Structure formats: C-alpha cells, structure tokens
Amino acid sequence: MAKRVTLAVAGSRKTQGIVEHCAGLPRERRVLALTYTQRNQCELQERLARYAGDHLNVEVLGWFTFLLRHFAKPFLPFKFPGERVLGFNFEGMPFRMATGKARFVDKSGAVYRSELGRLAFELITASQGALTRRLEGIYDEILIDEVQDLSAYDWDIVDALLGSAVDLWMVGDIRQAVLSTNARSAKNKKYAYAEAINWFRSREKKGLLAIEESAVSWRCHPKIAAFSDTIFDPSWAFPSTVSKNDHTTGHDGVFLVRSEHVHAYVAQYGPQSLRHSVASAKNLALDFMNFKVSKGATFPRVLIAPTSTITNFVRGGVSMDAIAASSFYVAVTRAQQSVAIVLDDPGMSRLPYWKPAADLERD
Amino acid sequence: MIKKIRVRGYRIHRDLTIYPNRKLNLIVGANESGKSTLMEAIVLALTGRINGRSATEELNPHWFNAGVVADFITKRARGEPQRLPEIDIEVFLEDVPELQELCGAHNSDTPTNACPGVRIRCIPNPDYSAELQAWAKAPSPLLPVEYYCVEWTTFADARLTMRPRVLATAVIDARTVRSTSGVDYHLRQILGSQLEPQERANISRQYRESKAALSDSAFKSVNERIGKLHAELHEQPIALAMDQTARTSWEESVAPHVDGVPFTMAGQGQQSAIKIALAMNKHAGRAKFVMIEEPENHLSHTSLTRLLHRMEALASDDQQLFITTHSSSVLNRLGLEALQFLGPTAPVKLNELDPETVSYFKKLPGFDTLRIVLADRIVLVEGPSDEIAFERVFTDLYGKRPMACGIDVMSMRGLSLARGLELCGRLGKKVAALRDNDGIEPDELRKPLAQWLKPGSREVFIGEVAHGRTLEPQMIHHCGEAHLRTILGITDKADIETWMSREKTEAALRIASSPERFTPPAYMLHAAQFIHG
C-alpha cells in the first residue's frame, strides 16, 4: 500500500475503514494506528477488539504517546546528553524566550505538550537515522486517523514518515479540521485547518503519496450532504458528497426556524442543539453541545444556533474562512435526517422555513 | 547478538568493557578475575534475574564494588560531595531490525550513540534521598540497599518487567550441585523454550483436565464420606480436589528423563551435558544467548571430548555462546580465537590469531594453552630436562623459584615454538624461548621466528654451535666435564655425553638436587636474566 491519504467526508465510516483494513491484514503484520482525540482512541480500540481481536500486532496509540514513546524518550540524549524524559506536561508552556533544555522540558523533567512536536522533529535529524530505522524495525505499517487535526511540526514528522520504509495510510476529513494539536505555534500555520489539503496536494505532486477521495456519506441525508458541500468555497475544489442515506422520515433536509418557533420545533423533533461555544446563543435556553465537542458524534436531527458568520453565509452566501467553515461543517454533518438553523431574517436564503402546524393552518 | 558489554561498579568489576565475538566466547582468567561475575552481569542485564530470582529481591550490599564504596567513604570523609556508589550494567546489541524496540540513546557511549540494548542499574531511590543523605554523613562499607532501587530498562528508556522475547537466554552452570528436589529455574526456562505455544497450551489444558478427572473419580468416595462427616461441624460441605492454582502448573511437575531415568537422578556431568544439548538444539524458540559455566566439571576426559564435539556441531550464527572454563581442552577444542582473557589490567581478545595456529591447537587439545594465557611471564623450553635445568639456574640466580616470581616454565615437548610465540605475541606476554642449536647457527634459527620476536619482550635464546648441539654438551662445556661428573655422580668409565643424552631427565634431576655449584650454559643464564628483568 506504500503511502497514501484518504480524504473523506463526514459520515463516510473512516474509523470503520481502518478497523476493516486491520482485520484484513495478515496476522503477523505489525501495525500502529494513531489517533488524535482520546475519544477516537477508545472508539478505535473498542472496535478493533470486536472486528480484529485476533490481530495481536495491531497497536493503538494517541499521537502524543507516539511522539513520547518513539521519539522523545529513546533519543532525548541526542539533544541533551544524559537527560531523560520524566513525564508529560499537558497544560504548561515554556517561557516565550526559553532556549535549550528549558524550551522543551519543565523543571521536573516533563516535556511540554506544546513543544513535543518540535522536539520529536528535531530528534529525527539529531539521531542520524537511528530514529527512523527504529520505527522501520518495529512497524510494517502506520495508520493515522483524523490526520486533519495534526498541526505545526506534526506535518514535518509526517514528512519524515513519508521518507521512511514504513507503509503509511492517513485518513481524515480536511473539512473537519477544528482541532489543532498546537494552538500557539506559528510553525506551518499555512497548513493548519482546512489548508492541509494543499499540503497533501504538494506531496502528491512530488510523488510521495497518493490522494484518494472518499465522498460517500452513510450518515447525512442527500439534502444535508448537498448543503454541506456549499459551506466551503468552490476554490477549495473538494469533491461533492454522495449520500447513501436513503431513509425518509417526512422531515428531511435543511430548514430554517424562527426563534419564536424553536421550542415548538424542539418539542416536536427532539433535535440535538448545537452552538459554537458557551458564549453563543445565550438567548436560547436549550441543552446545547459545542461544535467542537460534537465532533465524531451522530444525531438523527440537530438544531444549530448560528454565529454571525454562519448567519451571513446562510443569508447571503458570504463565504466563510477556513476555521469558521470547518466548525459549521462539523455541526451540519452531525445530522442524519434534518438540520434546523435558528434564523429570523432569511435574507436571500432559499432554505424552507419550518412552522408549527397551527401556523401553517393560519396561512 | 551482543556487541559490547560494560559493567560498572558490580562486584569485582569497577569498569569493565568487553567486545564479545559473534559466535563463541571463551572467558578465561585466573581465580577471582571475575569470570562468573561477568556471566552474572550479562544474565542480569538480559533477564533482570539472578539464579532465577529478580534482581530487586536479590540486591545486597556485596553487589557493590568494594573499591567504589571505599572511595566514596574516604572522599565523603574528606568532605567532598562524592556521588553515591551505583551499579550499571549495559549490554549493547547489534543494530538489526528485530531488536529496534530496544533501540535508543540511553547508554554510556560518548558521543551519543543510538543502538539496541538493555541496561540494569542499582541506583539510590529518590524516595529515600533524605535517609540516604543522613546515612552518607557517617557511611559504612555496607551500603543501605533498602534505600536503593533496581532499574531495568531498554536503551529507549522504557522500563522492563519481563525479559524481552528477543533476548532468550539459557544459563547452564555445571559448577555446583543444585537442588535435588527437581528442575531448577534455568532448566525450566530451557525446557519451556523447546515447546511451541500451542503445544504448551495443549499440555497445560490436558494436565488440568486430568487433575479434574482425578477429583471426580479417585476422590469420589472419599468426598462422599467426608462430606457427611463434616456436615455437623461446618455449614458447607468439604471436599478434596486436586489443586488447580498456578503454583501447581504442569511445569512444576515435569522432569526430563534420560533413558527412563529422571534427569535429577542422572550424573552431574550428564545433567550439564543434557542441558547444553537442549539449549543449543536447533529449534524455533531456542535461546539467542547461552551462558555455560565450566562445562568441563563432572565430566571425564572422553565425555568432555564428546560434549565439545557436539557443541561445535550445534554452534551457529544465530546463537551467541559465553563459556567460562579452566580447561585447556575446552579452549583448544572450541578454538583459541574465541578467547576472552580477563587479565589483571584490561581484557584481551585473541581473535586475530592465524587460522592455522587455531587449527594447530585444535588438533592438540592436550596442550596446556591456558598456562600460557594465565601466566604473567613465560619461558618456553623444548623438553623436561631443559625445564628442570632452567629452574635450577633461575633459583641459583635469584634465590626463588621462577613460579614464585610469576614466571611459568613450560615445556613445548616437540610442539612448534613459532605457534607458542605467536600466542604469546597476541596475548602481549613477555616470553623467553630456549632451544637447541642442533648444529645450525642461532641467527639462521631465529629467521623463521622473526615476526613473533620483539627485543625486550619476546626473545629466543640459543647456545653457540661451538659449545654443542644440545643442552647436554652445552652443560659439559660450561661446567667442565670433571665438575659435572661430580654433580651427576657418574663413574669415569661412562662416557658423559652418551650417559647424559640417554638419561636426560635423570641427569637434569641430579643437577637440580645437587648441592654442588653449577655453572649454567650462557644462553640459559641470559634467558633467566632476561625473563626476571
């Protein structure tokens, strides 16, 4: 399989694809599956146990654990002779001007999460090939799920993996890149979020990897899929989503709801309410979930409290920047059957308004 | 494959570095030179265990190098902030794909070097630093090991709790009589490695089932009886059943049998021969490293020869052997090039020996090569009469026998002087070789030996042609016939040269024990002066 990346749409069963891939591999093949979020790690582990439990050579690690175990720990002496990694500092950050050891490691010897990527990357070169050789000796194949969430030096590390003899398969949905492994670093900012697509395309041009598109969504109703395709400006050149959800309920697709009807709507359909963050949609007293948190989840119906950027987009088609588009894309694609957006002034939107039955009769 | 071993602060080894051979290592040294300690150290680092028990359990103050501890005490007494004594054993492995899990830069190499390896250290436990500081104010030679911890890690700085599978090690110790109760830990390891995982599981399952069957059949009537018996005393019925807990697993009740006789009933020599054969036998799970302590013990000469022959046949590139020995037979037979000599200063390897010399000594297992290896300085002579005469000359000169000065006088008994000199040369030994001129000019005789000679450290001493072809005429010439007749106590009727040549050893013995003054041949005198230095 060599080196490839599968760019998938939301609801395309990415994780299941990895699980089935592992189940189909020869038992002796040594595979490392990497994920970014804790939730996905548990999910992957649980599903692998179910579908590929007889494959004892498949190992699941979080991205940070991977960098600690195979980069920082074994090879730290190449940067700081005689030193050891004594822990992982998830919250802390070095002083902005810190140099040398203090840049990477706190007083108790724990590596800062924010600097781990850089440390790992620098050790690849410092180890004079030993680090890459070690990985090649331990694994035949590395799988990276949610590859869109990598950032900064992580991309350079992936570059190094592309140059190794280990087979590499990355899976991700560039449109869902709402989390970043390193929020502060300025490194590779141009690849952050949805712009990762450009990174892959440039590597493809150099012949380092093959890009595969997986545009089939098993989750979203065709109307929701079509709407989700409009969120990103056509200049991104994302392929159109093909929906395989042929289920109908009588209330399928994307709707607008006036604030006065929200409670009636919630009472009738019981959607999961989504908002950007705790600061948004304070006027609505609903049991909200934040966009970021909803990542990876599936709901039959969702109700979205839009941000002003989303409002402008829905009303007049004003294109959104990558970050805003990503988070709105995540919210929309959580739904299987219906998406309702709370909006009082439709502007130029052609989306249908939902009204309670009583109102419809009055009309 | 082990590329390098470094032992620091462990027992006799203050700082020892060994570069083992790929296949075979014959560890040789005088008593107390630390051969067994080196083996122990290797096993500790590879398996985390010593005699089958974990290092943490076994840690005791005597593990620490006495010199390091003494230094620590004197320096602390002087108020210097000397670091607490530590033990650090590192095993550097070959940089091959299957060992990469163990690869990392946590080793003592400078500049920083990444390679696969394992390391075991006994270091002060940071949890007890206050107690240790208090103790260090008035330290005693017995370290408080309670405040120490054992850290067993890979070079990747990952802690080890179980021996990694790639480091399968078999330990065979023929020196001591082990427990008579059954199969010891090391043998169980060797036996275990003979079985495929499925076979193990199968045996284990059937063993458990047959035990269960026993409970249902043989114990049935018993259980019916005691079930009733105890009902009055105790609420729940009591029954007997075979113990199915882990400590009664099949491994505990299995013993190899030799020709129908339980292994432990076999002779000591046979036991170790079987262990060696099992450990070296070619099968999938066989040990990567085999450590054998003194295989010659408890074996007759013929049995040893047979065993060595089998070991030679089984030796292969995917197994690295470490053997300690006190036997020249083992050394010659398995190949002198495998020698690792733990000398008084630094360890010496002997792997650059001419292959012809190696095979020369292989054919002569009886030759006492170990004497050359172990001697401080050495005198090579042709035969027993030269040996005896030299002893007398040396003792006359210095008032002590050569051995008392660390000089071993060895008779080559017709073996090639060149081979002996090559061996001494490779070992860096100071050597004086004496030979008869047999009517040939000494300079001519020196020519073929020239490459092994080095003025001041390896020299050949030969009598002048004019003074006689062999030792006997040389002695007559230097001593004077009349005086020599007195020393030897022979009559005027006998021809002295004929008598001496016929009774070589007897003549030498008479010279050695004679109270008369003895004037030695010049070349022998020079040899004695040279070797004494």
SSE topology:
The complex is a heterodimer of chains A (about 375) and B (about 525).
Chain A: E1 3-8, H1 14-23, E2 31-35, H2 38-51, E3 58-62, H3 63-75, E4 87-89, H4 101-104, E5 110-112, H5 113-126, H6 130-138, E6 141-144, H7 153-162, E7 167-172, H8 196-205, E8 210-214, E9 216-217, H9 222-231, E10 242-243, E11 253-257, H10 262-269, E12 272-275, E13 288-290, H11 291-294, E14 299-304, H12 308-316, H13 322-332, E15 335-342, E16 353-354, H14 357-362
Parallel strand pairs in A: 1-7, 1-8, 2-3, 2-6, 4-5, 6-7, 9-10, 11-15, 11-16, 12-13, 12-14, 14-15
Chain B: E1 2-10, E2 13-18, E3 24-28, H1 35-47, E4 49-50, E5 53-54, H2 55-58, H3 66-77, E6 87-93, E7 103-104, E8 115-124, H4 129-137, E9 148-154, E10 169-173, H5 185-193, H6 197-216, H7 220-231, E11 257-258, E12 261-262, H8 268-280, E13 289-293, H9 301-314, E14 320-324, H10 328-334, E15 339-341, E16 348-349, H11 355-362, H12 369-374, E17 377-381, H13 384-398, E18 407-411, H14 417-427, E19 430-435, H15 442-446, E20 458-462, H16 471-479, H17 481-488, H18 496-502, H19 504-513, H20 522-532
Parallel strand pairs in B: 3-14, 3-15, 10-13, 13-14, 17-18, 17-19, 19-20
Antiparallel strand pairs in B: 1-2, 1-6, 4-5, 6-8, 7-8, 8-9, 11-12, 15-16
Helix pairs in contact in B: 8-9, 9-10, 13-19, 13-20, 16-17
Describe what you observe in this structure.
By secondary structure, chain A is of the alpha/beta class. Chain A has two domains: 212 residues, Rossmann fold; 114 residues, Rossmann fold, CATH 3.40.50. In chain A, the strands form four sheets. A six-stranded parallel beta sheet of chain A has the order 3-2-6-7-1-8, with helices on both faces. Chain A has a six-stranded parallel beta sheet with strand order 13-12-14-15-11-16. Chain A has a two-stranded parallel ribbon with strand order 4-5. In chain A, helix 1 runs parallel beside helix 2, helix 3 packs across helix 5 and helix 9 packs antiparallel against helix 13. Chain A is elongated. Chain A starts with a strand and ends with a helix. About 2% of the residues of chain A have low confidence. Chain B folds into three domains: 167 residues, Rossmann fold, CATH 3.40.50; 142 residues, no CATH class; 158 residues, 3-Layer(aba) Sandwich (Dna Topoisomerase Vi A Subunit, Chain: A, domain 2). In chain B, helix 13 links the parallel strand 17 and strand 18. The longest helix of chain B is centred in the middle third of the chain and has 20 residues. Chain B is elongated and about 110 Å long. In chain B, strands 1, 2, 6, 7, 8 and 9 form a six-stranded antiparallel beta sheet that branches. In chain B, strands 10-13-14-3-15-16 form a six-stranded mixed beta sheet, with helices on both faces. Chain B is an alpha/beta fold and 533 residues long. Chain B has 20 helices and 20 strands. The chains are: A alpha/beta (363), B alpha/beta (533). Chains A and B meet through helix 3 and helix 6 of A and strand 7 of B.
